[in-house]
Amino acid sequence: xxxxxxxxxxxxxxxxxxxxxxxxxxxxxxxxxxxxxxxxxxxxxxxxxxxxxxxxxxxxxxxxxxxxxxxxxxxxxxxxxxxxxxxxxxxxxxxxxxxxxxxxxxxxxxxxxxxxxxxxxxxxxxxxxxxxxxxxxxxxxxxxxxxxxxxxxxxxxxxxxxxxxxxxxxxxxxxxxxxxxxxxxxxxxxxxxxxxxxxxxxxxxxxxxxxxxxxxxxxxxxxxxxxxxxxxxxxxxxxxxxxxxxxxxxxxxxxxxxxxxxxxxxxxxxxxxxxxxxxxxxxxxxxxxxxxxxxxxxxxxxxxxxxxxxxxxxxxxxxxxxxxxxxxxxxxxxxxxxxxxxxxxxxxxxxxxxxxxxxxxxxxxxxxxxxxxxxxxxxxxxxxxxxxxxxxxxxxxxxxxxxxxxxxxxxxxxxxxxxxxxxxxxxxxxxxxxxxxxxxxxxxxxxxxxxxxxxxxxxxxxxxxxxxxxxxxxxxxxxxxxxxxxxxxxxxxxxxxxxxxxxxxxxxxxxxxxxxxxxxxxxxxxxxxxxxxxxxxxxxxxxxxxxxxxxxxxxxxxxxxxxxxxxxxxxxxxxxxxxxxxxxxxxxxxxxxxxxxxxxxxxxxxxxxxxxxxxxxxxxxxxxxxxxxxxxxxxxxxxxxxxxxxxxxxxxxxxxxxxxxxxxxxxxxxxxxxxxxxxxxxxxxxxxxxxxxxxxxxxxxxxxxxxxxxxxxxxxxxxxxxxxxxxxxxxxxxxxxxxx
Length: 740
Hints:
This protein is of the alpha+beta class. It is 17% helix and 34% strand. It contains 13 helices and 42 strands. The strands form eleven sheets. Strands 11-10-9-8-5-2-1-12 form an eight-stranded parallel β-sheet. Helix 3 runs parallel beside helix 4, helix 6 (193-207) crosses helix 7 (231-244) and helix 10 (330-343) runs parallel beside helix 11. The chain is globular and about 80 Å long.
């Protein structure tokens, strides 16, 4: 995103209803017209993008150092990339983001701010002499100064105002309303429009740039309809790149709408599928864990739209090299790099390369992990939830397998090999630790630290896994209540979905006939639809509320994720909703297995769904589990949050994770089963993003009551608690959570 034009996301209420789309025939005709240029192109457009690139981008550092973007600093970063050793591992791109431009030339083309970029071509030449490639940032449309100057378009008798859409309107997501949007829309049916874009790209090419980031592209960029519509801009920029005769990578940004991948894929090398990873002043560091975790939630919806012939899913910068300033622990950084690698996402560092710390450098230069990123085999999610598993099938019985822990508690993770379609492993290799681990039969078990990961290369044993029984249940055929209602959905099973869920306990869909042949743990595939983050709180029979945190890029193309679910013999009811916030639309669920799937030992309890006393409120909060939090906690004896049924199988010590949010120090009192309160002195830099506190507590077998509050002063907002066994009992199976 452009720092100077950054805007907050639309609240989910702006995106709740199913959006209107062009009729299929009209969209097909439009797509055919727009992709005519690409018909003769190679599998990757623009002569670039055969593999995801590695490099560096200026934007992260710009968010904490506004004056950072200068020619002098870019030369320093280029030299640092060469001398750091990163370049020897494939990191070659030096990309300028927003802020380099100062004016417009006589033909209405952007030119550098000469005070900060006195000779931009000399800068690019320096980058090239270092054996690197240079990237530049721009946006669709035409900015106000060029419109007012009404400059002649190079090589034509036309002028800038001859190519503007009438009536005047916004030309990208940064444009304002009305006739004077500052960023003006181009009408590409007008003579001179393509020639203008040709002239801009030719200028960038004459300076030597090898990469263009086109930002503020819609549908996307928080404008998820056709009111602006930059599809024709993307096609025009791609045509202009082809006409330079030079291989120039083009990335379109940000959080683009997947419904229009018929344009994005043939005309760009990568799509930013998320918003900015940086905090941009909303926390005290470059980024933080909730902004990394968001990528885990959005990526399943895009996992089928990437690869050597389609281009790459861009997850934004990797802020892993600036020590504590990154806002991530070492394990969180390792998990981020693992996800980027498994996704085959472009891996470009943020921060200041002159201050690259040894731990960050070691993460970025692990050649076995880089090989995962460069494999051309983007992974697919095999399991979702708090212990997700991603798998890349390399062919010939070889796989990359990544296991993750989304919780701040330590976890013992069990992966039955049949979950990923193999009978076992004759070889497993830990790619982060460069360690051979030998064969593994039946299930693979490992210990993961807080927000940690393990990345494996697996050689599978020969043999096929017998197909497991499965049953599909359509949401529109289930019991609907409140505002829940069927809606058309072109990409859904049965072309219908259920929307209108959430924002009230009554707005729900209940699948009442989920059959299980025996008591046990099954796998439930949830096909849901959303743009951005949303969450279900779902309930199996009369059990506790469970959380399914999701994301996505479309209300017409479902995203699939699979979680373990406890079912009893016979017919079961599974109810989906979210009383306090926004769940996705629901297409269907598919339940499969024989009741022997692995069940994580931890349990999550949402604060917004707990008992809230006094003034405590529950409501939407974007980066929080359940897409909601409990606020106004503390400041009175009644203003508590009570979790009345925290259930564990055996008495003993457990890990308790408390996810909270505060801007500055606040205290929280913890009471377990009526015991004397324990004071927790907590701190944080934002009410927008949760932070985790983990401590040990003693719990009794069965139900426990946990109370959080502060009778004397305001307490932090509360997201959720997670209860998990100690690691050793989990290894021994003594604290396993059983289906109930």
